[in-house]
Structures are given as C-alpha cells and as structure tokens.
Fold each of these.
Amino acid sequence: MIKQTVFVLIFAIFLFVSCSSEPDSLFDSDQTLIAMEEEQNDEIKLKNKIIYSIPSPNEQFDLLYFLNDAVKPTVINPLSNVSLYSTNSKKALNFGVYISDAAYLMRYDQGKRVFLDYVSTLEKLGQDLDITKIYGEELVTQVEEIGADTERLFEISSQNYLTIYDQLIENNKGVELALILGGSWIETMHILFNSSKQFNENIEVQGYIVDQRFVLENLKGFVEEYKNDVRLEPLLGYFERLGSVYKKLECEKSNLEIESEDGIMILNGGTTCTFTSSSYKEMKSIINQIRTSIIS
Amino acid sequence: MIKLIHILIISATLWGGYLFSQCQRPSQVISPDYKDGWGENSQSKSGHLRPGDHYEMRFIAQAGIKYRIKATAGSNEFSEDNISFQLVVKEVNHIEKDGKVTYKSSEVILYDSELAGEGEEAIILTSKAQSLSIKVKIDDVNVPAFTTLCAIVLIEAKKAKIEGLK
C-alpha cells in the first residue's frame, strides 16, 4: 500500500513539473556549415520549457487571400466523407481537415449556408473528441443573425478555432489536439499547393509554402510533447518525410539587419530559401499521399 | 496517514486543474487595439506560471505583418509589473577565417521589457517569415513564492505597408 502511495505521489509530482524538451531542429540543412557556435544570452537562462505557437488556419488563409484571390472549392474534402471516419485518430485528423476547409471557404466568402454545413458536421465529429458546447444552437443563431457579413463569419470561425484549442488543452486532450493541428496543417498545405499550381507558376504562393517550414518546426515541437502516444506515430512520420524535403531547399544566407523606424523594429536580410523543380514536385507529391491517407 | 496523503494528492490535482481552467484568453485581459487596425493573433497564449519560472514561446512572424507583443500577469488583478519578457531572434552569421567558412549562431534581444523606456513598445516587422521567441519570466521579487499567476502574452497583428521593406 505504501509503495502504491509513493508511486502515486511521484506520478503526481511528475505531472506537475514535467517539462517539454527542445526537439531536434528540422533544419540542419546547412550543408556548407563547418562549425556552429551557440551563444545563449545570459539574461534569461531557461529551465527549457518551450511553448510552440502555431498560426490558425484562418490566419494562414488570410495571408493566402492576400497573395491569391482565386478560390477552388473543389479541392476540399467533401463533408459526405465524414461517415468514413470511425477511429478516434481519424476523427481528430479529419476534424482538423474540416476546420481548415471551413476557414478557407469562409476567407473566400463562400457564405453562411456553407459554414452552417460545417458547423453541423464538426458538431457530430467533435462529440467523440470532447469538443462540446461550441457548435450548439447558440452558434447557429449567431450565424443566422449576422446576415451577409462575410468578414464577421470569418471572425466567428477564427474564434471557434481558439475556443476548441483552449477546451482541448483544459480537458487534457493534447493528443487529440495534436492530431487536429496536424490534419489541419496538411489540408492547408494541400490547398496552398493547389493555389500555387505548377512549379514557378505562382511564385508568391510558392514562397509561402517555403515559409511553412517554420510552422512545421513548431508543429513538430508541439506534437513531440505527446510522442509517447502511439496514435501520433504516423503524424510524426509524415513530419519527418516533409522535413527531409525542406532540407533540400536551396538557401542563400545573408546577415540579418535590424533597424528601428518610428518605434518599429524592422528585420531585413536573413536566409532566403527556394524550391528547386524537383523538391517542389516531391513535396507536392508527399502532401498528396499523406492527405489521401488521412481523408480516405 | 495514507488516506490523508491520498486526499492531499487528489485535492492538489483538482486545484491545479481548476487553476489552469481559470486562466483567461489573452484578449479577455488585454483588449487588442481594434480602432488602430490591430487584431488578436492566433498565436497569443495564456497559462499559469510561478515566480521565477522561465518560459520560451516560439511564434512565427510572417513577412509584411506588423506584430505588437504585450504581457501581463495576475490572478484577480493583472499588472505588467508582475511579468517581464524579451523578444529574441536567432541570428546566424557567416564568418570566413583562414579559408574556413563558419556560421555563428547567436541570440539577439530585440526588445527587453525591463530595459524599455516609457512608452517603448515591442513592435516588429520582418521582410521574410521568421521564427521568433518571447522569453517570459514572472517577477520573483515582489510576487510571493508558491503563488501561481495567470500569465498573458497577447500578440497583436496588422498588415504593414510593403514599401517600407527591402
């Protein structure tokens, strides 16, 4: 009995003090690098608790909209596919896929009827993931009342994402959240590649896909906090595959320049990376494969 | 005695869960300046920290977007004096010496709330997407030890005029 109590006590203490460690960097791509010296500033020596922030799909599509205003509603995962998802992992991954699709369609003003279809599907899918009280009648009424204000609709979908994030963290559903974020990001990448089309056809969107390496790095850091759960093994495998393609980017380094103007710090320079034709095609193909395995 | 330990563990666990669930969303504590075109960025965070705790929050700054970072901490009443933060970027410099190419990685502090002058804000704009860190610390001089405070890091964002960038 005493042993059991001691075990419970140690376990409880572990729960309270457990910290996340820094994941291996995705980008040890400096092939010309001979030596790397690390300098930590002495002002704040961390106990190494690192928290990874990941931009919401709404934020991602807000930027895509700025770069490319053409919408392709056919690229999304049809809502009718929801009946295919029976396991907890599939439900969580596709919850993320649908959240991204909804954010994409709302950014491109596809209307409240479309949004309400997503509300209905996400409500059903969310029940098994402990996501409750978000997609209820109150939200439906709120959406009905806003009329044709598409900007407000986009704000509501953005707010929903944040509420879901908070609720899952509060309910200790970190694994489900990791799957949702993973599914959401893969779908975002799928939509970005569809907007970017062929290699060098839309340079700006292509550049935005290159920038997604930072999102992948933070996402990997977040998911690794729960890596002992076997449900996350496939997702971490996907990240490894995608990370290995990002290592093939052609990167040109220049020193970072920092200037201050009207109280704003402006960062210029730094590393510029671009796809080669083959790395672009490889990345697009892997995203297609992963996305197909998630939604089917 | 064993029962007492069990009760203490269960109480502590429930109390911890209660505390965590009571930490508000950043925009519920610090109102984003909507009038001036700012909006809450989805990468804002809140959570419970103890005095002396150090946290590093990694977020992604997209090119051409202005970000403003604000932090506060408290339980019922919030104060910027309870928390300090630094905005940091990792810089990799290219050095050539004796025919050898070396990259030296160092952290550059872009903003330090403890050193900032009156009215000086943490506003940043990048010409390329960057991974930035916000290093957060709860004051361990004025906040009593073993107190847990709700720490808020609000990231506001708004689109910038591109012509100012190189």
Amino acid sequence: MFGAACLAYRRDLLLAFRHWGQVAQPLVFFVIVATLFPLALGPQLAELREIAGGTLWVAALLASLLGVELLFRADHADGTLEQMLLSGQPLAILVLAKGLAHWTVCGLPLVLLAPLVAAGLGAPPAANCTLMLSLALGTGILSALGAIGSALTLGLRRGSLLLGLLVLPLAMPSLIFGARAIDLAIHGDNARGPLLLLSAMLVLSVTLAPPAVAAALRISAE
Amino acid sequence: MKISLQLHNFSRLSARGIEFWRGDRRVLADVSLELEASECLHVVGTNGAGKTTLLRIIAGLLSPERGQVAWGGYDTRSDTDGWRASFSYLGHSDGLKAELTAHENLAFETRLRRPVRDGEVDDALEGVGLKAARNLPAGFLSAGQRRRLAMARVMLAAAPLWMLDEPCTNLDAGGSMLVAGLIGRHLDAGGAAIIAAHQALEIPGHTPRRLELS
C-alpha cells in the first residue's frame, strides 16, 4: 500500500519535472499578484507592512487554486485516472500521495519564495520564520481543499470558475488565521495562537480530504 | 467477505439482470452473462448498444440500476479493491502518460499492481513489437503503437480476467493478429476475456462466445 503511494508520488514528481513550465506558472502568478499591491497602493513601506500578511495570503490562495486545477485533469483526460481507480490499491492513499507531490512542486517553492516577496512589501526579516510557517501550513490546507474541488469539477468543461466558488469560501478560516499570524509577527508579537489553529486545520483537512477526493473521483469517472 | 486472489486463478464471473439507465433512456435491459476459465466472451452490438457501458458496469466504474456482478460467487461490490486487482481493463483511452517513456509507463502501471522486474517489462515491450520505442515518450508514438503499449500493460498486469474495449482500434493487420495471439495465449493459460468489438474476432485455438446487445 505504501509502496503504491511512493510510486504515485515519484511518478507525479517526474511528470512535474518533465513539464516544469506548467508547474512554474502558479509560482510566477504568486509573485505577480503580490507585486500588484505596491504598484496599486503606492510605495510607502509603513502602509504596505500593514497589509503584507493579507496580500501574501490572498496571492498564495489564488496561486494554489490555479495549480490545483491541474491536479487530476491530465490524468482524467489520458485515462490514467481510470487505471488508477481500477488498480486495486486504496484510492485515498494514492490521492494523498498525489496531493503531497502537488504540494512539493506547487506549495513548497511558494513558501521558499515568500520571504523575498514579503521583503518587497516591507516585512522585517525577523518575521520570515512565522511567515514561512504560516504559508507552509496554509498551502497544505489549500492543496487539500483544492483537491476536493478539483475532483468534483473534473467532468465539467469549464470547471475552473466553479472550482474557485467551491474552494474559496472553505479557505476563508485559514486565510483569517494565516494572515493574522503574519501580521502579529511583523509587529513583533507572538504568533503562536493562530499558527496552532492553522496546524489543527491542516491536520483536519489532510485527514478528511483523501476519502472525500476518492469519492469525488469515483463519481467523476462515471 | 474477501475474495482470495492468485494470479491466473480464475473464478467464475457471472452477471445477472443488469439494467442501466442514462437519463430517461434505458441503455441495458436485463443483461446476463457467465464466464468460465479459458473462455472468451465477444460482446457485439451497434454503436450505442451499450458495449462500453456493460464493460464499465462489470469493472465497477458504473453502478447499474438493477442486477449484480459476482466473482467466484461473491458480489463484486463486497470487496471492490480485491475485485479490481483480479482483472485488467483496457478502455477507449489507452491510459498512458505522454510525458513518460514506454518503459516508464508500463513499469509504473504494473508496479501499482504487483512487483515487476525491468527485464519483464522489456520482454513485454518486445512481445508487442515496441522494443525500439523503449525510451521514447509515449506522446511520440503513433495511435496504433500506443494501443500496442496499452495491450502490453494489460498483459503485464497478469490478472486472470481481461476486459478489452475495442482492443484493435487504430491497429494495423499485424497489430490485430498480435492482439488476437495475446488473447489466445491468455486463454490457454487459464485466463478469461470479455471483449467488446465491432469486428469478428479470430483467436487462434478458441471460439469466442457471442453476446448480442440490442
């Protein structure tokens, strides 16, 4: 069972490596969206610092949504999803492996890039640790929620808008606590509370999402 | 209840009273079938008669409104993962990743089901005449070559039951004979096959039973 999960994880990483241009798109999107705010609001660092947490989180949310849409689409189109359904391996485990691979190529680079983007928004370097932790937990939650939405909208021709409508409301609680954690860190306060709440949300979504995604995939395959 | 499974250990497959509706159109009405070891069932019917639907129902990808599919006497829905491990399915799409090479595709799909050595995969590639394409991405192969590769995957799964939906699509005369030969060898080894196809099937040493869908 875990052999199958490792196999699925390795395959998805290999596929991402073979078309890395597609994988890099959400990352570039993240940087561009976060750059739009200073351009629109003006270059006063004191002002930007106030909205840095929220900006980073909204940009990360939209970028995740963009990336997660492709999670099952190619597999569905070329029939490998059907083969995965019929492989006799527990689908929830394979889904978890795929989600983890997706986070490795989509969420993790975003987290690593975040301090750079945050510096552009006037966030002090002292906040970087909290900032990265907040986004690491957050992108995990968003990958899990996005996977459910992606699986549900798989059979639809124009599913991307519906995906946003389904996932964004669910992501609001994590947005509130995630942005708050960064805010607290930027002002030099202790951000432990919101980070612990975020961790709890991550545990909840990673536990509950795989069976939900598996069920949604079975329905989409019909 | 668990279905105990060994490779090439064929249990009896039976479907009784399958009925399936798409919207307000009845696609399948009271379809029944039986399949024993070394037997081949050829599902025939016009376009839209429900050949693919029947195969997908047996595979468990679709749930019928009425009727049940049983493997070795047990309802296949009582142990879906066990049932899925006991057949290999070839659908309309080949189920290959365009970015992965022929060898990587086969190795991945097969290892999801059972451990397999690289040499075994190479033998399968040679068996379907794709030895030279071993390290080519599947996206570079022609439609017929991809179909051959998909047949190699079916073969490598070493499942007792094969379910093939139009296996000869895009294949040249040599390819069709090759597929017929593979099915023949599978039946000789005690396996069974359900094949949905328009064309007549000539499997060396075996006469397929026909199931007409109307």
